[in-house]
Amino acid sequence: MNLLTRINDNMSGFSKGQKLIANFIAEHYDKAAFMTASKLGNTVGVSESTVVRFATELGYDGYPKMQKAMQEMIRDKLTSVQRIEVTKSRMAGSDILMNVLNQDIDKIRNTIEETSREDFANAVKAISKAKTIYIFAVRSSAALASFLGYYYSLIFDNVKVISNYGETEIYEKLFRIGEDDVIIGISFPRYSNAAVKAMTFAKRRGAKVIALTDSMTSPLCSLSDYILIAKSDMASVVDSLVAPLSMINALIVATVIELDGKVERTFERLESIWEEYDVYRSKSEEEGN
Asked: Could you tell me if 169 and 138 are in contact, meaning their C-beta atoms sit under 8 angstroms apart?
């Protein structure tokens, strides 16, 4: 049940303090979603324990669960200006470097807990067998598509990265997609309409659809055969893509292992080309400097 619906249904039975919390959340859940129980209590004039009991009263297993419900409500609704405001309120006056790095560590831990190992394994198998691999991501997620596309293009000869688009270009670049193909759609809050359209088109054409996104509430999930959950931060000045990039690293490593000896032969040929055309600095050159 939606948090606001729970509040409305229980309003008549709340104490005076609980009503203060309820009214604040109803009017300012975009701010309350990133407050600790202590800060929310101080803001409305009640104790931290009252806030915790309020969450329990609504049926949540503690305040963090209610806070997560508030964050889900605004997942793809925060504007850039609102994100800046939230970031300031969360980090102003703190050790920003430590806070940002610790939050990214937490996102990786949450990703480990939430990603389906079965979906991950099936996605790797589908990618390894695909006739053509399409990778679709735009805006800030385009960097992820570029990274994944770079490594997959070394491993496969059938990779197409789509990260720049116009309204009609999506379909022009995908019109050959079919049942033997795979599309990996990447999108994080604020979710891209273009990614939803691309994956919808691919699914209708019978392709295997893989979503790399942050939550089961993402609009990409209902379109996907396999879902790879990687947590991101929708309330930061920049999109946190640390966990998604780690997921992509795991995807590349698992694909190499799935293909067994084929990749080694490919990279042996690449190493010969790189050496012939002096792509990388040699050890002797580095020692000479």
From this structure: no
